[in-house]
From TrEMBL:
Keywords: ATP-binding, Kinase, Nucleotide-binding, Phosphoprotein, Transferase, Two-component regulatory system. Residues 1-41, 109-153, 411-472 form the PAS domain. PANTHER family: HYBRID SIGNAL TRANSDUCTION HISTIDINE KINASE C, TWO-COMPONENT HISTIDINE KINASE. InterPro entries: GAF-like_dom_sf (IPR029016), HATPase_C_sf (IPR036890), HATPase_dom (IPR003594), His_kinase_dom (IPR005467), HisK_dim/P_dom (IPR003661), HisK_dim/P_sf (IPR036097), PAC (IPR001610), PAS (IPR000014). This is histidine kinase. It is an enzyme of class 2 (transferase). It comes from the Bacteria. It catalyses: ATP + protein L-histidine = ADP + protein N-phospho-L-histidine.
Length: 800
């Protein structure tokens, strides 16, 4: 049975009821490129690409079916076939028979193809790999001047001069070697004229991959190329800046260019008339600009063709008035309405000149009766309109630029005159740091010549200490509109410097700075003299205040001592001395002696610090113990003042390198101040904390506080928060200055924070450092009596 199926002209496939292939005849196998074992036993979907629903219908329905099936070859070629499907018994089993006849896709003949090719305006040909013509259409025979039989079997050298035929052979070889279709612009000589053609050539290969032939399509592009060359030839002339300053009429160059283009288009299309209309928005109509041949008649004595711009845009959107049409197909109300009136005109082409959405004009061509257009060249005409639109726009812009340029030159002359007479220094500086333009004032002030300024970077002239200031000012400007001002020293040619008050604004579009400057050297000298005078006056004032304060500090305890001694002497003379009064008077003398000693010690220490003879005797100490002992030593004074003293620490032991005597001096001074300014039942907190690098000590009170404006001066020499020398709390004003100096010698520092009426807090830190070798220092620090004596001295100006 299989033998019989193999003799069928139709394709035969037998499937089991699951859809697996049992048999394919040789005709189908050969057509699909398979051998029997490659598909037998596989599902039908291996060679059939119909939808799943179609395949399911074949397998599920036992009725006879007729379907159009699609088979896929081994090389992925699709084979379409009309098929009959039935279910029957075969070799004792129920099977599905599919008998198919391939649908002939080629309903056309070679004659049909040649008829199509002979009726197109483009040239078509086929050559073998040696360049011998196998086919040429009617259009190709026209440009060679030979009939088809003469061309077939001939070579390029038989029809073209050697220069041209060698070029054609070279491009044929190129497409065969690269195995890709290519587009070439080739020059051809027809009847003695050089014409440009666009050639599309593609290689054709045999099934074994060997080259078979070259097919080509040739299109005449001579008109497009010559018009394009005319446009580019004149483009630079129209838009060049050299013409902008000349006093010419607006469309002089444009008229010559459009007239040349018009003639090229007219001759290239074989038309009888051509006009180019320019739309004038002010006059709301088209102005006849170029009139050639028959268009001269239709536009004779017409200065304007009224036309509503809005109506025109609507018509463009509807595509009512564009393209090549018979005269009667154009609307009566259109830019070509005057051409429609001519009786001998049969075809009219109307095309808008527009750039983006702006309508600039119209090109119209006309054909008389008997001169039928060879082909519809609407696409070509629209491309010409696009190029002409650019020319018109450029000409108009050039005229506007010429006018603006003229205004600019006038403004520049006025500005130049202003720069020459201006007293201020004026400059234009590029973002690269070089002067672009300078006024004559620069030369007068700095002494540099204009050439020296314009060829040098401004860094050359700026004082080295001021250059970074200039760079930061440039970098920190918030926006392009911001004007930044600064005072900068500029070097004169003689090496001296002058101060310039500088103002600059960055012009982002031009990438440059517009700057002005005033010579303020004399002003700076006066300001410096004034500053020195103010400093001298202030220093003198401080000295006077200090000496007044010091004299008071000395005189008060001395007066008390002398007064007490006189009182004691009188009591002795009158024999009224008793132990209680004598003890009281002795204590008064002792306390005021401590006050004098404290003042003298502070003055000596300040002087020693100033001349560098104040030395620290550091040793490794438990700073927690040092601070705690000092704090507890003032308990007596705190109790007498009815003040709560609280000591707290976050660590019990911390060894640091310090001078315990000097640390005691620091803490006693801070506690003394706290006691002075804290009222009864107030609180003083001494707190110790630490971090990785420092031990931090805080002395905080609930006293009267310090005004914010005085916080910055309390650590200054002789500075006091109370400038009225309030006698409530005595003091010379040098204690905190000494405290700050001692802490800085330890590598630490001190800060104060306060709010008037809510107390103050002084926080100081000492670096956590330990001496590598233990240093033995003779100190009376561990002597309790010594500590008490120190407290008496430090608190000598605190009265109960």
């Amino acid at each position: 049975m299989e033998f019989i199926f193999n003799k069928f002209d139709e394709y035969v496939v037998i499937l089991d009821i699951q859809g697996k292939i049992i048999f394919c005849n040789d005709k189908l196998l050969n057509r699909l490129g398979y051998i029997n074992k490659e598909i037998t036993g596989f599902y039908i979907s291996k060679i059939m690409i119909n939808s799943d629903s179609t395949i399911n219908d074949i397998l599920s329905k036992e009725l006879d079916l007729e379907e159009k099936l699609s088979f896929e070859s081994k090389t992925n070629e699709i084979v379409y076939a009309d098929s009959k499907i039935c279910t029957t018994d075969f070799k004792g089993k129920k099977v599905i028979f599919i008998i198919s006849k391939e649908i002939d896709q080629k309903k056309y003949t070679m004659e049909h193809l040649e008829m199509v090719l002979d009726n197109i305006e483009h040239c078509a040909f086929i050559k073998d790999t040696q360049g011998k013509y196998l086919y040429a259409n009617k259009a190709y025979t026209k440009i060679t001047g030979c009939d088809r039989n003469e061309i077939i079997g001939s070579y390029d050298i038989n029809h073209w001069e050697k220069r041209l035929s060698d070029g054609y052979a070279r491009t044929d070889k190129e497409v065969l070697e690269c195995k890709k279709a290519k587009l070439f612009n080739e020059l051809t000589n027809v009847n003695g004229d050089d014409l440009w053609y666009e050639s599309y050539k593609a290689p054709i290969y045999n099934k074994d991959g060997t080259p078979k032939c070259v097919v080509g399509m040739v299109r005449n592009i001579n008109l497009e190329k010559t018009v394009k060359e005319e446009l580019y030839k004149n483009y630079n002339q129209i838009t060049s800046l050299s013409n902008l300053n000349e006093n010419k009429e607006q469309f002089t160059d444009m008229y010559k260019l459009l007239n040349n283009i018009g003639h090229k288009v007219l001759n290239g299309l074989g038309a009888d008339g051509l006009s180019i209309l320019i739309y004038d928005k002010e006059k709301n109509g088209f102005v006849p600009y170029i009139k050639l041949k028959e268009s001269v008649k239709s536009l004779e004595k017409i200065d304007i063709i009224p036309f509503d711009y809005k109506l025109m845009k609507e018509s463009i959107n509807k595509k009512e008035w564009e393209g090549l049409k018979r005269k009667d197909d154009h609307l009566k109300y259109s830019p070509v309405k005057d051409m429609i009136k001519l009786e001998d005109v049969e075809y009219i082409g109307s095309y808008y000149i527009k750039l983006r959405n702006e309508i600039l004009g119209n090109i119209s061509i006309s054909y008389k009766k008997g001169n039928m257009p060879q082909s519809n060249r609407d696409d070509f005409m629209k491309s010409i309109c696009n190029k002409i639109a650019m020319i018109i726009k450029n000409c108009r812009l050039s005229e506007e630029v010429r006018i603006e340029n003229s205004k600019r030159m006038t403004t520049e002359k006025e500005l130049e005159l202003y720069l020459n007479v201006a007293v201020d220094l004026i400059a234009v500086i590029g973002n690269d740091g070089y002067f672009k333009k300078v006024s004559s004032s620069w030369i007068d002030v700095l002494g540099w010549s204009e050439e020296e300024l314009l060829t040098s970077h401004y860094r050359k002239f700026i004082h080295p200490d001021d250059y970074e200031i200039v760079m930061k000012a440039k970098a920190n400007r918030k926006n392009a509109d911001e004007i930044f001002r600064l005072d900068v020293r500029y070097m004169c040619k003689d090496g001296s410097y002058v101060w310039l008050d500088w103002s600059s604004k960055y012009i982002e579009k031009e990438d440059l700075f517009i700057s002005t400057a005033r010579d303020i050297t004399q002003q700076k000298i006066i300001e410096e003299q004034k500053r020195k005078l103010e400093e001298t006056v202030q220093l003198e004032s401080i000295k006077n205040e200090f000496f007044a304060n010091i004299s008071h500090e000395f005189k008060t305890p001395l007066n008390i001592i002398l007064g007490t001694m006189q009182l004691t002497k009188r009591n002795i003379e009158k024999n009224r001395v008793n132990i209680d009064s004598l003890s009281k008077h002795t204590n008064i003398i002792k306390q005021n002696s401590y006050r004098l000693l404290r003042l003298v010690n502070n003055l000596i220490d300040i002087s020693r610090i100033d001349i560098g003879f104040y030395n620290l005797q550091k040793s490794n100490q438990n700073i927690i113990n040092v601070i705690e002992e000092i704090t507890l030593s003032v308990a007596y004074y705190v109790e007498n003042k009815k003040i709560n003293l609280i000591f707290d620490t976050d660590i019990e032991e911390l060894i640091v390198s310090c001078d315990p005597d000097k640390i005691e001096r620091v803490l006693l001074n801070l506690l003394s101040n706290a006691i002075k300014y804290t009222p009864e039942y107030g609180t003083i907190n001494v707190n110790i904390s630490h971090d990785k690098e420092n031990v931090i000590v805080s002395v905080k009170d609930t006293g009267t506080g310090i005004p914010k404006e005085k916080i910055d001066i309390i650590f200054d020499r002789f500075g006091q928060a109370n400038s009225m020398l309030c006698r409530r709390c005595e003091g010379s004003g040098i204690g905190l200055s000494l405290v700050k100096s001692i802490l800085e010698m330890h590598g630490g520092n001190i800060q104060a924070s306060s709010e008037l009426g809510n107390g103050s807090e002084f926080v100081f830190n000492i670096p956590i450092k330990v001496l590598d070798e233990e240093v033995t220092v003779n100190s009376d620090y561990d002597n309790k009596e010594y500590l008490i004596e120190k407290c008496h001295i430090e608190f000598s100006d605190i009265y109960s």
